[in-house]
Design goal:
single chain; 371 residues; alpha/beta; Rossmann fold; Dihydrodipicolinate Reductase, domain 2; 10-stranded mixed beta sheet; globular
């Protein structure tokens, strides 16, 4: 094993944990340890990275001197791993969402505040070429003031396998909203420079996930069997956020719905509008002009960067460890705001009413409408 001075542990040795480990190793970090409850996953990780593995993260922290950890476990188990790491002054990259519940996310934020290290959230889509290009034009004032954002993160049929933790509310904290909706919420707020969210209206649905006759053309779920009851989560959501200065954000989110797949975001500014794909490398810019005669100006801007978003995220995490400075991107206060929004959407859907967020405590309150 090469020695580079930056030691990393991976908590959760499935697909995402292995991807992070490969990226960080390529960036000259030492992948020295990993934890997983699955012995097969531990053996595969040991063989691939020549790392020592453990069945639980407590033993790893007791036995290994670490500079950073990446957490890719199911959502419910983010908090115990993250808080122990932060209390040991070990930097954390926590895959999205920050936690399975708002209370759990807030405890991670408290641990981050008292720690000498930092916690970074895993919102990889911010590192897309389209997002970087958008930010450059936004900072130059090309868009004017943003007043509305529309977004979609929609699969036509893409419910994860029943019986997995993704479809178990106790472990995941929700369904499509907390799984892929978390990306849509973060991306929209990121495009708007993370304004304060004042009011939330949301509807979550379980239209297809409870059906015995669900069609799965792309084989996302493998064998479909609803008999074990592990399908108590949402499979789609519609969200409306009212932010400071009357900026609005409207989002469609779905694991399954009867429409074309879509990962498009539209930003409307006072000087120009932009359309982009969540995972793309180009912007469509919409403006008007008056030279000679009134006319439309529609332009496609394309980045030549071939960016691996997860790789760029891992590089930012590693740079933060090596410099001893908290990364400027994907900060925990933003991840906590996303968690508050998700919690508010679920409350709004259950109560069939809008939810307002208090400016100071961000405490959620139900809006009582006059009869």
């Amino acid at each position: 094993m090469r020695e580079t001075g930056t030691t990393i542990g991976i908590i959760g040795l499935g697909l995402m944990g292995t991807r992070h480990a490969a990226n960080l190793s390529d960036l000259d970090a030492d992948i020295v340890a990993g934890t997983d409850v699955d012995p097969d996953a531990r053996r595969a990780f040991e063989n691939k990275f020549q790392a020592t593995t453990y069945a639980d993260h407590e033993r790893m922290f007791e036995s290994t001197d670490l500079d950073g950890v990446v957490i890719t476990t199911p959502n419910k188990f983010h908090e115990p791993a993250a808080t122990v790491a932060l209390d040991d002054s070990v930097a954390v990259l926590c895959e999205k969402p920050l936690a399975h519940s708002l209370d759990s996310a807030e405890r991670i934020a408290v641990a981050d505040e008292r720690s000498d290290a930092f916690c970074m959230a895993g919102f990889k889509h911010r590192f897309s070429p389209a997002a970087s290009l958008f930010k450059a034009y936004q900072q130059d004032g090309e868009l004017g003031d943003i007043n509305a954002i529309e977004g979609a993160y929609v699969r036509r049929r893409g419910i994860p396998g029943l019986g997995s933790w993704f479809t178990n509310e106790e472990v995941a904290g929700g369904g499509s909203l907390i799984d892929i909706g978390v990306h849509a919420i973060d991306f929209a707020l990121h495009l708007a420079d993370y304004p304060d969210v004042k009011e939330i209206t949301g509807v979550t649905r379980s239209t297809f996930i409870t059906r015995d006759d669900y069609d799965d053309p792309d084989d996302w779920a493998g064998k479909w069997d609803t008999s074990d009851g592990s399908n108590d989560v949402d499979d789609s959501a519609t969200v409306f956020l009212r932010c400071e200065d009357d900026l609005t954000i409207s989002l469609e989110i779905a694991w399954a719905t009867n429409r074309n797949p879509d990962e498009t975001f539209i930003v409307r500014g006072t000087e120009a509008g932009v359309r982009m794909d969540l995972r793309g490398n180009s912007l469509e810019v919409y403006k008007t002009g008056s030279k000679d005669h009134d006319h439309y100006q529609d332009t496609t801007l394309r980045s030549e960067r071939d960016t691996n978003k997860l790789y760029e995220e891992d590089a930012a995490f590693l740079e933060g460890i090596r410099t001893g400075e908290r990364p400027e991107v994907n900060q925990i206060d933003e991840a906590l705001q996303v968690q508050r929004v998700i919690d508010g959407i679920y409350q709004s859907s259950t109560q069939q009413s809008s939810i307002t967020l208090d400016d100071n405590s961000q405490r959620q309150e139900t809006i009582v409408e006059d009869d």
